[in-house]
Amino acid sequence: MKWDVFNICLFLLSLCNAVRYEPNWKSIDSRPLPSWYDQGKIGIFIHWGVFSVPSFSTEWFWWQWKGSPPVPGVEAFMKDNYKPGFTYADFAPEFTAEFYNPNEWAELFNASGAQYVVLTTKHHEGFCNWHTNYSWNWNSMSTGPNRDLVGDLADAIRKYTDMRFGVYHSLFEWFNPLYLQDQANNYQTQKFVESKTLPELYELVNTYKPDLIWSDGDWMVSSDYWNATQFLAWLYNDSPVKDYIIVNDRWGNDSRCKHGGFLDCSDSFDPGTLQKRKWENCMHLDKYSWGYRRNMKIDDVLSMVDLLSEMMETISCGGNILINIGPTKSGEIIPVFQERLRSMGDWLKVNGEAIYGSVPWSHQNDTVTRGIWYTSKKGPEGRIVYASISSWPEKDQLFLGAPKPTASTKVTLLGYPQQFEFKPGPSGGITLSIPVISIFDMPCQWVWIFKMEGLKN
């Protein structure tokens, strides 16, 4: 055999393909994270289901109404607005999705600058947003929309964008009799897992070939009950998505923030410091709910400054940010959510080079001036460092304590053509001279990013 470059590549590829992951956490955790996830940084989360019909309180509406203890405000809402005997299942026919246009959704998400989308396929209420063989009459093909909501969006994302498509799936269901029976048996039986959870997961993977599985509903019991490592070993070894699939850490109360792919740890996880493993901040534009709320006020929605500041803090510390919206029961994304996503996309057109493909710097935030977060990237002549500021300097100077300038240092503002003058700080750091910039020349309205090349550090 002639060992030319081609044959060497084939040999190395065969070695990679020979890797088999065992159904235990040590082996599962050894799998390298496919690079597309860390490079992309920003995703869109979509919470949509039967809970979008009452669109009151949160996506936990059913549990807040019928769980233990019930939430008084939700009980009162049902008593005041619905006839006696009304059940949660009666909401399903009203989940109509008549204005659901997945092509428009795909265009909006693409315009936002996000690199991946994660759709709720099934929340804890158990309603499946796809044509499933494992949830008779409690799915979007059998009642309500009478269409495959998951498949329609997956097709649109892949046809009209270069974004990755992911699926959220809840392992458990609040009131499923099979789950409640396993729970009553102290999880010594697995009827729910064997007949519902795992078949759904295999079906989602084989049917839609997602790029990401965002698991949830794990906290009641360990990953052994869910047969999580067995499923993940199949996913990494033999599934049709084995080469590029990403998963999170919510596979049991023993795995969260410890095992799996990237770490979610908790909702809105934002540690503010660099983490040892890849992590994600899943957060919502509506401060009080993941699902759509009809009584949401404008002040309940994150401002662009808040959203972009949280994005920069997250990415500076090595995380991805997954930004949630909740569509209406009709399939509409309300204008304020559209405005936030399109504004984010306009901002990223100016500042995206500090985001996509970036890595954490030696400092995550500044050592002196508050509210400044750093990212970095390898440039043609050395390391490039980006510093984000959430408020424009009131004076004509800005001091950064972390950077160490040299004679060849160059400082610019992303989206602005002129270089900024600077001088070394008296005891380290760098002092930028901030000129008067016309509103017509200001590159963006919120959160500005300085680009520094040729630093000593």
TrEMBL record:
Functional summary from the UniProt entry: Alpha-L-fucosidase is responsible for hydrolyzing the alpha-1,6-linked fucose joined to the reducing-end N-acetylglucosamine of the carbohydrate moieties of glycoproteins.
Classification via InterPro entries: FUC_metazoa-typ (IPR016286), Fucosidase_C (IPR031919), GH (IPR017853), Glyco_hydro_29 (IPR000933), Glyco_hydro_29_CS (IPR018526), Glyco_hydro_29_N (IPR057739), Glyco_hydro_b (IPR013780)
Domain Glycoside hydrolase family 29 N-terminal stretches: 18-353
Annotated ranges, domain Alpha-L-fucosidase C-terminal: 364-453
Superkingdom assignment: Eukaryota
PANTHER family cross-referenced by the UniProt entry: ALPHA-L-FUCOSIDASE, ALPHA-L-FUCOSIDASE-RELATED
The EC number(s) this enzyme carries: 3.2.1.51
GO biological process terms, semicolon-separated: fucose metabolic process; glycoside catabolic process
Signal peptide from the UniProt entry: 1-18
Gene Ontology terms: cellular component: lysosome
UniProt KW keywords: Glycoprotein, Glycosidase, Hydrolase, Signal
EC category name: hydrolase
Catalyzed reactions per annotation: a neolactoside IV(2)-alpha-Fuc-nLc4Cer(d18:0) + H2O = a neolactoside nLc4Cer(d18:0) + L-fucose; a neolactoside IV(2)-alpha-Fuc-nLc4Cer(d18:1(4E)) + H2O = a neolactoside nLc4Cer(d18:1(4E)) + L-fucose
One of the Pfam families matching this protein, by short name: Fucosidase_C
Annotated positions for site May be important for catalysis: C282
GO molecular function: alpha-L-fucosidase activity
Protein name: alpha-L-fucosidase
